[in-house]
Amino acid sequence: MTASASIRHDWTHQEVQDLLSKPFNDLIFEAQQVHRTHFNPNEVQVSTLLSIKTGACPEDCMYCPQSGHYNTGLEKEKLMEVQKVLDEAKAARETGATRFCMGAAWRSPTKKDLPYVLEMVRGVKEMGLETCMTLGMLTEEQATELSEAGLDYYNHNLDTSERYYNQIITTRTYQDRLDTLENVRNAGMKVCCGGIMGMGEDEADRAGFLMELANLPEHPESVPINLLIKIPGTPLENVEDLDPIEFVRTIAVARILMPKSHVRLSAGREDMTDEMQALCFMAGANSIFYGDQLLTTDNPEADADRRLFERLGIRPEPLATDRSDEDEAAELTERVEQERQSHLFYDAANA
Ligand code: SF4
């Protein structure tokens, strides 16, 4: 596979596993090539995430402090008032976020709650922010209502490989998740879908997970790759740490398989050194959550993010609507030309 190869949806498990186990430098080189073909390598999309309803979730996801099945000491909260959500969105916009993600710990939204959620979507959208929600499983009708209210993205993760899935969640099936993703797509929304690494899965599971994502009929526009945060009280609190290099490899392969998707460095970032985050950006991650909170777990302070961006010469990606197609095409051509002239990469394998 080279940077110019076309977008594929027919990856085999073996192909993905071969990518995951490539020599590290070759893998990062390939991921950078793909990344630079489709994105400005020095821009990272910035989202802010707010928990609009916390805890007491009926699902049993074994990593999650919000599951009502485990005692993690998390304070439960009812659905947040619409105005409070809008105030938070306004504050997020002022700190430079272009997308506002709202998460509720539900199996799926209820009839009673959905009208409030729709109001939140309309209000946040009116501020000029992109909107994203994660509310659990959606029926076709619910997906359509959310889409009509102006919801741009819906987040629903596959979490892991199909094979490992029932070690992690028993209250909903892999197929349930695929069905929700299909309902979201059919309603015309963009898909945010990824998973969590370091839950005790092996490399074959990470390959299976990436293959599932890459072989969806359309690649998710946003692919969050999380590193497990081990929460005391959850069944995964003592699971063995994932080798950080394996995590970076997962990011790189996600980038190669889904060249046009934003790969998001998501939960677990607060446990990463700046150097590890820099490696992830090099491997093709180009989206982060920014701010004080990542749903219920700590997120690195916003100032630390700003400092890291400065040190790496990274700037927040502007909203896509800020640029015309012509501007984007011109920028891409210029970048390709600059790279060709600077011989930034010397590909020893092909020399
Ligand atoms: S991950 Fe979502 S669905 Fe699973 S327990 Fe947590 S809040 Fe509920």
From TrEMBL:
Binds 1 [2Fe-2S] cluster. The cluster is coordinated with 3 cysteines and 1 arginine. The keyword Transferase applies. [4Fe-4S] cluster binds at C57, C61, C64. Pathway: Cofactor biosynthesis; biotin biosynthesis; biotin from 7,8-diaminononanoate: step 2/2. It catalyses: (4R,5S)-dethiobiotin + (sulfur carrier)-SH + 2 reduced [2Fe-2S]-[ferredoxin] + 2 S-adenosyl-L-methionine = (sulfur carrier)-H + biotin + 2 5'-deoxyadenosine + 2 L-methionine + 2 oxidized [2Fe-2S]-[ferredoxin]. SUPFAM superfamilies: Radical SAM enzymes (SSF102114). It is an enzyme of class 2 (transferase). It holds the Pfam family Radical_SAM. Catalyzes the conversion of dethiobiotin (DTB) to biotin by the insertion of a sulfur atom into dethiobiotin via a radical-based mechanism. This is Biotin synthase. It comes from Halospina denitrificans. The gene is bioB.
